[in-house]
Design a protein that fits this description.
By secondary structure, this protein is of the alpha+beta class. The protein has one helix and four strands; from the N terminus they run E-E-E-E-H. It has a four-stranded antiparallel β-sheet.
Length: 62
């Protein structure tokens, strides 16, 4: 998948302590991309936008 032009932002669901952070690119047509902020050159997960919305709408469990 070509991620050229992805605009990455830190997820609002990431912890503020700098340990467990993901970055999300939601500006790509037809896909939401997610990566580990500590490994920006590493693997990227991609989701259809509807699946991503369902995922972030799910309350966290503890």
């Amino acid at each position: 998948m070509d991620l050229t032009g992805a605009v990455w932002r830190t997820s609002t669901r990431s912890s503020g302590s700098g340990g467990n952070c993901v970055e999300v690119a939601g500006n790509l047509p037809g896909v939401v991309a997610v990566r580990d902020s500590k490994d920006r050159q590493g693997p990227v997960l991609t989701f259809p936008p509807a699946s991503w919305r369902a995922l972030v709408a799910t309350p966290p469990t503890r």
